[in-house]
């Protein structure tokens, strides 16, 4: 049975970085597993042509597999029952020898071509999609199957065939077919000798048949097919007839009697992954006496018992074994079909839990009260990390291997069982380093240790030095209402980065921005940052990163903003320039703690870039009132301040079909150190809590609709001590209370925000309704100069509305409950 192959391509795009994460040879049931990748990697599934590889049959034995009949010694007869005397059939019954055939590798539930050979290997995250391993003939399974099916791809390139020349409708044994003719088959059917009925096409025995309707085969190939069926141990007897049809083709009929064993009470599973494969003894049982045969069987049983002592425990839970034992006790006899169902149930548990290389390879002790199920679980025997150049050829990398190794999950290390989730986690964690343009995680069979898995990690490094220049022109409404260029002078930015210094993932980043690149001194902004990960050393498990930066930025202050009944208020700009150094410690993937020091110079300026000491407003006469709230703590328009800053984040959200589900907590505190203008000592803190509650379970997948989600959000902030006006909390805006402008509700020392949002997918688009409320808790009067009262702002407000998300854009209609008016807004990014 040809294995079906699907290709799964993972593409991760962050800014200008594209990550091709690999290809996987798997059955269709694997695709659902990869559609659930929700932590930063976007997956697209593409179906490719079948790879046409074969997987070995799973065998069942008591003692050695197929110990009484090796393929090289298989008789040329068509009917096993007619050629094997009663003694041999008695021997096969007592030794409990059977073979479980395979479909697409391991029945319909195979997730991975673990031992298919032909270079396809175990499959893996490969170049451009999930692809097979890079070489090897697949080990003894593949070599055994080559002998088993000599005509695996024997269909001739020449599609012509010979007419059978036989009487239509008359059944004829394949031994009587013309050896020189090439016959075309119209179909294959199985006839159960015991019941006399044709079995349905859904019968698992069809998995064993490699002949396909429309294939052109010779009599020798028919015979080889029959020999494969005869020696697999599934049948007590099997024969093959050809039924001529009027169109010149043959309909093949396989007559069989299913193998049966005695009733069994329990099932025991063992891991034989790294044990050497037992070889059938080269003996001629036909020439043995009864005593010699009995002694031989006893030796086989002893050897098998010793082999079981060398096996390892399986990771299959005991509860599953008990359920299987309970089920097997309900079967009156153990048959080949029962063993196939048993195999499928065991493999389903492994594959559902991500152990894609696990495979049932043998059943033993069939004529006893306890069936032994031998499983190859996919033990990792070797981990290889290889760097590649842009052409995909091996090369010496710049990155320290320890940097990559510490990002790998423990379950991907030597001695563990290979798991798909561990491979996906390795992709995410290695990608988070930001050092590689292409990452591949390829599991393949170990050619040296039978049943082992070699995990290959192939990496292509990004260029260490990059630089980028971008320009932009602003557009604003003209006098006639049509958009015009604000200025012919271009704005833009220049950025440069030198990453992975000394191969230890250290980096230097710099950027310069200006609204006028031709004369940048007016509003020049810059940032220079140095990042030093693994502060305690690469070998230390404590994950701390040191960052140091110098910066200069200019932002419009929402503190000095007019209320709804006030005419236009002159803007106040806040310039910040200084130094910042902090340490970030990651406790888990969801939790981190950042702490450090900030020293900055804060300058407030008006629209002409002159230093501004007070806020102002327009009087009814049209003149400006300059007696507004002081803009700085020093009353000079310029402050110097140093403070300690800390931030704790706990984020366990995940994405289900593109929408976040989970909870996020953020606590931040700024503590003044008494350094700077008027020696400010203050404590400024805020707590943010956001919960995304999934209201309905949905099927996960790349094109599936997201679940309905209820968002509950709350934020509290407070400040005690010396507080400059530019550091006051503001209410209103797209990330505070929607429906209001930035700071339109007030500026305060303490505040509380509450919001709820219901997200429902409609026609593939996420729509939502929301209600939000914010209040200054009566603390606006405690801000120097009381900007809230001066600019006639309410101090609290509520809004509600509806919206629709279109990619990164949010189109919202929000109702302002203070004035009773509504407006349409277009925003970018997420609210929460």
TrEMBL record:
Q: Does the keyword Transport apply?
A: yes
| Principal place of residence | plastid
A Pfam family? POTRA1_3_Toc75
For this UniProt entry, what's an example GO CC term? chloroplast outer membrane
Q: How does it sit in the membrane?
A: Multi-pass membrane protein
Query: What's this protein's family per the entry?
Result: Belongs to the TOC75 family.
What is the recorded name of this protein? Bacterial surface antigen (D15) domain-containing protein
To which species is this protein native? Ceratopteris richardii
């Amino acid at each position: 049975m040809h294995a079906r192959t699907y290709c799964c391509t993972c593409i991760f795009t962050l800014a200008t970085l594209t990550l091709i994460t690999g290809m996987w040879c798997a059955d269709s049931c694997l695709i659902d597993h990869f559609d659930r990748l929700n932590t930063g990697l976007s997956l697209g599934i593409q179906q490719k042509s079948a790879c046409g590889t074969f997987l070995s049959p799973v065998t069942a034995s008591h003692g050695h597999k197929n110990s009484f009949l090796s393929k090289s010694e298989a008789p040329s007869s068509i009917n096993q029952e007619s050629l094997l005397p009663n003694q041999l059939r008695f021997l096969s019954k007592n030794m409990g020898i059977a073979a479980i055939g395979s479909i697409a590798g391991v029945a319909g539930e195979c997730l991975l071509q673990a031992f298919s050979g032909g270079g396809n290997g175990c499959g893996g995250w490969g170049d451009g999609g999930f692809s097979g391993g890079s070489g090897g003939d697949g080990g003894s399974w593949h070599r055994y199957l080559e002998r088993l099916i000599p005509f695996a791809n024997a269909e001739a390139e020449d599609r012509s065939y010979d007419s059978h020349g036989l009487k239509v409708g008359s059944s004829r044994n394949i031994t009587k077919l013309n050896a020189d003719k090439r016959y075309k088959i119209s179909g294959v059917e199985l006839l159960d000798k015991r019941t006399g009925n044709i079995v349905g096409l859904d019968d698992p025995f069809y998995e064993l048949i490699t002949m396909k309707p429309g294939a052109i085969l010779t009599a020798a190939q028919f015979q080889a097919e029959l020999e494969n069926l005869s020696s697999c141990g599934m049948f007590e007897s099997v024969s093959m007839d050809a039924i001529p049809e009027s169109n010149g083709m043959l309909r093949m009929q396989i007559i069989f009697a299913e193998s049966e064993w005695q009733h069994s009470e329990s099932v025991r599973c063992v891991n034989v992954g790294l044990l050497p494969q037992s070889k059938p003894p080269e003996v001629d049982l036909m020439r043995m006496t009864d005593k010699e045969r009995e002694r031989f069987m006893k030796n086989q049983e002893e050897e098998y018992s010793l082999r079981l002592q060398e096996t390892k425990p399986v990771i299959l839970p005991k509860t599953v074994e008990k359920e299987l034992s309970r089920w097997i006790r309900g079967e009156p006899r153990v048959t080949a079909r029962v063993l196939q169902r048993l195999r499928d149930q065991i493999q389903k548990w492994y594959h559902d839990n991500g152990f894609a290389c696990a495979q049932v390879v043998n059943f033993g002790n069939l004529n006893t009260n306890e069936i032994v199920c031998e499983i190859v679980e996919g033990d990792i025997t070797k981990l290889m990390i290889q760097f590649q150049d842009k052409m995909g050829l091996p090369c010496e990398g710049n990155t320290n291997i320890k940097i990559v190794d510490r990002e790998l999950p423990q379950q991907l290390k030597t001695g563990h069982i290979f798991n798909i989730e561990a491979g996906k986690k390795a992709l995410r964690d290695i990608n988070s380093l930001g050092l590689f343009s292409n990452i591949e995680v390829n599991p393949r069979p170990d050619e040296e240790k039978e049943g082992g898995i070699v995990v290959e990690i192939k990496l292509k490094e990004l260029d260490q030095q990059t630089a980028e220049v971008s320009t932009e022109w602003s557009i604003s409404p003209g006098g006639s209402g049509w958009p015009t260029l604000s200025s012919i002078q271009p704005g833009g930015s220049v950025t440069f980065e030198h990453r992975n210094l000394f191969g230890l993932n250290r980096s230097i980043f710099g950027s310069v921005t200006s609204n006028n690149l031709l004369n940048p001194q007016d509003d020049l902004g810059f940032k220079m940052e140095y990042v030093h990960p693994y502060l305690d050393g690469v070998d230390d498990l404590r994950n701390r990163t040191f960052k140091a930066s110098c910066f200069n930025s200019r932002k419009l202050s929402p503190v000095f903003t007019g209320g709804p009944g006030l005419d236009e208020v002159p803007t106040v700009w806040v310039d910040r320039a200084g130094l910042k150094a902090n340490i970030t410690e990651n406790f888990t993937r969801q939790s981190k703690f950042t702490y450090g020091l900030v020293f900055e110079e804060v300058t407030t300026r008006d629209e002409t870039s002159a230093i501004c000491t007070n806020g102002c407003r327009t009087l009814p006469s049209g003149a400006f009132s300059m007696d507004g709230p002081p803009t700085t703590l020093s009353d000079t328009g310029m402050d110097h301040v140093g403070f300690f800053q800390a931030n704790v984040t706990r984020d366990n959200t995940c994405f289900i079909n593109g929408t976040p589900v989970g909870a996020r907590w953020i606590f931040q505190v700024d503590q003044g150190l008494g350094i700077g203008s008027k020696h400010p000592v203050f404590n400024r803190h805020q707590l943010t809590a956001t919960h995304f509650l999934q209201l309905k379970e949905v099927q996960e997948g790349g094109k599936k609709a997201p679940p309905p989600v209820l968002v509950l959000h709350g934020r509290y902030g407070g400040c005690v001590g010396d507080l400059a006006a530019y550091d006051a909390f503001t209410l209103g805006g797209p990330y505070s209370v929607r429906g209001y402008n930035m700071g339109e509700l007030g500026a305060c020392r303490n505040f509380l925000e509450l919001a709820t949002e219901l997200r429902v997918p409609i026609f593939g688009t996420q729509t939502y309704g929301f209600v939000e409320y914010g209040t200054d808790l009566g603390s606006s009067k405690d801000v120097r100069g009381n900007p809230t009262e001066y600019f006639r702002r309410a101090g609290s407000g509520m809004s509600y509305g509806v919206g629709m998300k279109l990619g990164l854009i949010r189109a919202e209609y929000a109702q302002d409950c203070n004035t009773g008016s509504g407006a349409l807004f277009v925003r970018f990014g997420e609210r929460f």
